[in-house]
Specification:
Layout: E1 8-9, H1 16-27, H2 30-37, E2 41-44, E3 47-51, H3 59-74, E4 80-83, H4 90-98, E5 101-104, E6 122-125, H5 132-141, E7 144-147, H6 151-165, E8 169-173, H7 179-185, E9 196-199, H8 202-214, H9 218-224, H10 235-238, E10 242-246, H11 252-270, E11 279-281, H12 287-299, E12 306-310, H13 316-326, E13 330-334, E14 340-341, E15 346-349, E16 358-360, E17 369-374, H14 380-394
Parallel strand pairs: 1-7, 3-17, 4-5, 4-6, 6-7, 8-9, 8-10, 10-11, 12-13, 12-17
Antiparallel strand pairs: 2-3, 14-15, 15-16
Length: 402
């Protein structure tokens, strides 16, 4: 049996071979394979592309998309719903929509309306997972559930649940509005003393650390973190014992630095000998996130003239890759290949730290080396298309057969 019950599938639907051809046709890139086989480099005219050694679809994303395709084959006549986006890539989500998988988007407060779902329907849970309450609601409906929650996310959930069980507040490094962080935070709900606080970055972590070390206005801190704390959160009560976790797509080094800083604050407040009673931290860094960040750091040791980072603008791991690259060289974060316009020589991109797209008209001028990487939700065909458009913009031809 591929799932726990006839209505719940967690380990696939036994149709991997049946969908393999479709997945290859929709997401494979012969050009990317050639670049990898050529030592992750490719020359075209006066341009040299350097591809990061880890990029694009991670195992968890690949698995989620695979299961979504299997679902359509397994249940050809049923309505299939998807709780939010399967991953943060518009092309993958659009493809699923064309396969008649209906995406349920959250309300402004992040909650989902499942009133249209019936016991005869199929619902896909995305790689980010869903909250404890949402899962309970869907199980109550009695519909078929295809659970594609990433294993790395599940590992974080187990840690957060244990914190709550042991009366530790979970401090989560993440974005409070992100689907994964919402789902992770909800894991404390099964315990009367379950509490959480979500910090976006080291700056917010420092605010928490200052309160731990020196006290202060609890009301002010609670107001600042109102949207990113558990209901009835009390700074005086809930910052006495902290366990650190993270959204798996955040900057790995920052997650580790935040954990270290919280530990220092607790040691200063209670003494090193009492630290185990007040602080816990375990490595919940996603290996795929770490590998992609490490690979791009290796690539920019000898910085290329330009770094191209490909992936959805709402993808946390892609934004973090762009931030890493921007510290060393000119970086263009593009949503997909269509952002490169060969006829005009223009590139549309999202500058690091900004929300709106910008335009550069002579971005390839004087460029000889281009580094390329992509977020964990970016399929290979979109990477290959971007490289082809760059070559076309330059007015040169690829010398390899694609």
């Amino acid at each position: 049996m591929t799932g726990g019950t006839e209505n719940y599938f967690r380990r696939g639907l036994g149709l991997k071979k049946e969908v393999a051809g479709s997945l290859t046709a929709d997401y494979h890139s012969r050009l990317v394979d050639i670049v990898k086989d050529n030592g992750y480099q490719l020359s075209a005219g006066d341009l040299t592309f350097k591809l990061a050694k880890e990029f694009g679809f991670c195992y968890g994303v690949d698995r989620a998309v695979d299961y979504a395709y299997q679902s359509r084959v397994k249940f050809p006549d049923k309505r299939i719903f998807l709780v939010g986006e399967i991953i943060h890539n518009p092309h993958v989500n659009d493809k699923l929509a064309r396969m008649k998988v209906e995406i349920l988007y959250p309300e402004a407060d992040g909650r989902f309306d499942f009133s249209s779902v019936t016991p005869d329907d199929v619902v896909i849970i995305p790689a980010f997972g869903v909250t404890v309450n949402d899962l309970a609601t869907l199980k109550g409906v009695g519909c078929v559930l295809i659970d594609t929650t990433c294993g790395s996310v599940l590992n974080v959930w187990k840690r957060v649940e244990k914190y709550a069980r042991d009366h530790f507040t979970a401090l989560i490094h993440g974005k409070y509005y992100h689907e994964e962080s919402r789902a992770t935070a909800s894991q404390v709900n099964g315990y009367p003393d379950g509490r959480y606080i979500i910090v976006r970055d080291m700056g917010e972590a420092e605010i928490v650390c200052d309160f731990i070390e020196h006290g202060g206005d609890a009301g002010e801190l609670e107001a600042k973190f109102l949207a990113s704390t558990s209901p009835e959160f009390s700074a005086d009560r809930d910052l006495l014992r902290i366990g650190v976790a993270n959204q798996t797509t955040m900057l790995a080094n920052e997650s580790l630095a935040i954990a270290k800083r919280i530990g220092i604050a607790m040691a200063r407040r209670y003494g090193a000998e009492a630290l185990p009673e007040h602080f816990r931290s375990f490595d919940t860094i996603c290996s795929a996130t770490q590998e992609r960040q490490d690979a791009v750091l290796e690539l920019i040791e000898d910085p290329p003239d330009v770094m191209l980072v490909i992936g959805g603008y709402n993808s946390s791991n892609t934004n973090n890759l762009a931030a890493i690259c921007a510290d060393r060289t000119t970086t263009f974060h593009i949503a997909d290949a269509s952002c490169i316009e060969p006829s005009s020589g223009v590139i549309r991109y999202k500058p690091v730290g900004q929300l709106e797209e910008a335009v550069s008209e002579r971005w390839l001028e004087g460029v000889r080396t281009i580094g390329v990487t992509a977020g964990a939700s970016t399929p290979n065909n979109k990477i290959g298309e971007a490289m082809e458009r760059i070559v076309e913009t330059r007015g040169i031809e690829l010398t390899v057969e694609v």
